[in-house]
Amino acid sequence: MQEKTRGIYLHHINYSETSIIARFYTEKFGHQSYLVQGIRKKRPTFKKSLFQPLFLLDLEVYYRPGKDLQRIKDARLCMPFEHIPFEIAKSSQAIFLSEVLLKCLKEEEANEELFDFLYHAIALLDMKEDGIANFHLAFLFHLTRFLGIFPQLPTNGGAMFFDLETANFSGAEPLHNHYMDVETTSNFKKLFQFDIGKVEQLRLDNRQRAALLTQLLNYYRTHLDFVGELKSLAVLKEVLG
After folding, report:
1. Which residue has the higher pLDDT, 57 or 197?
2. Rounded CA separation 17/38 (Å)
3. Which residue(s) pair with 4 in the sheet?
């Protein structure tokens, strides 16, 4: 049956000489794979420029419940970006975040709150001018709310370490190596203070930013089915410093 849904483009692989299989996170159906036919022809049936990381599209699809591969009938931009495709600090984050989402969003069912968070966060990435270097950190942190691994902020001021395994703060250094050190824990706590629209208030230098990103990704790997290396990570670090 034909359905209309908004979708967030994540990734694609080539399929035959003229088609691709595109991965989307959709408003109505969650994570879906779609056959996009004719896009690799000399006169493609779809604009190739639509299929870029985190592009927000209006999709008309043929949906068959229980099938691993669906088909797209039509795709159009629902929010044209003004900055992400043209500014390397934003485009590198879009590529990185789409790769993260591809790894951790597996459910093939609607999650309206999660989709709304992603949609508005991506729109913010395009629109915001200040604090962009820290945007991916705030995105990863607030995404944990929807993945079931959101940590609880400690009520006492003596919590100097964050244990990645237990997802708890502690005043004593854990007996294993999977934890944030004092400085990174302090910077991690700052993420609780701001919503994703206030990233400009997060003050981090390049070294602190890199350390916090490393530990956020370690936290994801500890609690989610998050395997393999992130191919876009090296480029992101080079761009943001």
Report:
1. 57
2. 9
3. 60
Extended beta strands in 144-221, E state: 161-163, 168-170, 179-180
Answer CATH for 82-241 from 1.20.1440.120, 3.90.1150.10, 1.10.418.70, 3.90.180.10? 1.20.1440.120
Handedness of CA 106, 122, 232, 177 (dihedral sign): negative
Of the options 3.30.360.10, 1.10.3300.10, 2.40.50.140, 3.30.450.80, the CATH number for the domain spanning 1-80 = 2.40.50.140
Report d(CA 151, CA 149) in Å as an integer: 6
Please choose, from the candidates 21, 30, 86, the residue with its C-alpha nearest in 3D space to the C-alpha of residue 51. Answer: 21
Domain boundaries, the chain: 1-80, 82-241
Locate tokens 């400690």: which residue?
Answer: 154
Per-residue model confidence as pLDDT tens digits over 40-83: 888 888 888 999 999 999 999 999 998 999 999 999 999 999 99
Edge-first strand order for the sheet with 161-163 is 168-170, 161-163, 179-180
Alpha-helical (H) ranges within 174-205 are: 182-190
- Is the Cβ–Cβ distance between 137 and 191 less than 8 Å? yes
- The alpha helices in 49-205, defined as continuous H runs, are 88-104, 112-127, 135-147, 182-190
pTM of the full structure: 0.94
